[in-house]
Design a protein that fits this description.
The structure is a homodimer. By secondary structure, the first copy, chain A, is of the alpha+beta class. Chain A has six helices and ten strands. In chain A, strands 1, 2, 3, 4, 5, 6, 7, 8, 9 and 10 form a ten-stranded mixed beta sheet that branches. Chain A is globular.
Chain lengths: 257, 257
């Protein structure tokens, strides 16, 4: 019998119709579930996929990374073509390659970038409405930028964790939060880069920054929120449709085969 | 009783779910029908809307223009807000203003610009798939540009007319057809500007240009197609989802109020 080989894929999906990345019991409507079902049909053996991380129901991806092991020496191009032939039109594999057997898409990820898009005009753009949060309010972008700077660094982000039963460390490093105005000034794009994000962490940060932008919180209060280590201290959880996993990065030594 | 006033609106729509612009009898699922129903409810009187032109089922608009007459001295901002409150999320009014009573969105239009987007990569982008034709084939862009140049000018475009029973003149002026590669070279954008377009004319031109890009026709053959004045001489009708009415222009003297 041939040895198993490790395949890494780069994925896009519009998460609108799905219950998120992670597979769920019987009534499965997840990205992971769709991929595994197709690979299992292709190989005749159960295949398990590791994603770089879960994305919640309704969240999108421009550059999700996942890996899986197959025996049989499949050509990576053929695997990609097979997947794209049977995947629904809102999920696409952009790249497939063989990687070292040691590669693990979640454990080896060194940084992730999420982008959150907020429509501040009273009416959402009809063509991009599925990937933007239709807030319909203008925000104080300068105050949001100052607040965003305070949220960066290495901190205990317990106040920004949506999982109350989280038992592992809630310390993470957020390298950068950029706040950019696009399309004139009717689209606000928040770009988060960090070594990892807790459950709902980006969406709670977005909700908190929106409250700063509305003048409901001061930018200086970010320090107290972090210190509180209490979910109640932070703002609301922004809805999933504005969020997109843009990029996952790995160390150079994991890029090789 | 107050006199009627003329209102002009600028509209966006994702045409995917609709049977085109023009109102149809009983089972109405058109853009015009949606707009008229809301305005009729607002005013209590039947309102008729004139569009700058019909768009086919499945065709989109970034800048459709329409006008209608209302009595009662409605504030244009209030009309726009009312429309946007009741319109479905794939139709949006971007602007509403009072114009001269002489203004007619179809009769006074002096030029229109349509954009047709073709995905040439094997897999469509998941986020833009509703507004692009997923051809999945690379095309000879230089040959298409040469062919496009021959299709410009003032000609009888009968070969590019989808309506066999067309009794009026089929002479039109096409000012420009630009062929641009975007997103690396996986997206081809064809931009048509002219004083008017016959039924399906843009989509038949696109189908014919694609056949040139595939090497099934020479770019020089465009001259013979025009001379034939026969729909059979031209190529296939490209599907509606790639087409978008981008802009309608009016004479300066029609811009005033």
């Amino acid at each position: 019998m041939s040895e198993k080989q490790n395949y890494r894929i780069l994925l896009q999906y519009e998460g609108t119709r799905y219950d998120g990345w992670q597979k769920q019991g019987n009534t499965d409507n997840t990205i992971q579930g769709r991929l595994e079902a197709i690979l299992t049909r292709m190989t005749g053996d159960p295949v398990e996929i590791q994603g770089s991380g879960r994305t919640d129901a309704g969240v999108h991806a421009l550059g999700q990374v996942a890996n899986f092991h197959l025996k049989g020496g499949y050509d990576p191009e053929a695997v990609m073509e097979y997947l794209n032939r049977y995947l629904p039109e809102d999920i696409a594999v952009l790249r497939c390659e063989r990687v070292s057997n040691r590669f693990h898409s979640r454990l080896n990820a060194v940084s992730k970038t999420y982008v959150y898009q907020i429509e501040t005009a009273p009416r959402r753009d009809v063509f991009t409405r599925r990937v933007q949060y239709g807030l319909g309010q203008h925000l104080d972008v300068e105050a949001m930028r100052k607040a965003a700077r305070l949220l960066c660094g290495t901190h205990d982000y317990k106040s920004f964790c949506g999982n109350k039963k989280m038992k592992k460390s809630t310390v993470r490093t957020v390298h950068a939060i950029e706040v950019a105005q696009k399309r004139g000034d009717t689209l606000l794009e928040l770009r988060f880069t960090g070594n990892g994000f807790l459950q709902h962490m980006v969406r709670i940060m977005v909700g908190t920054l929106i409250e700063v932008g509305r003048g409901q919180r001061t930018w200086q209060s970010m320090t107290q929120i972090l210190e509180a280590e209490d979910r109640q201290a932070a703002g609301y959880t922004a809805p999933p449709e504005g969020l997109c996993l843009a990029e996952v990065r790995y160390n150079m030594d994991m890029e090789g085969k």
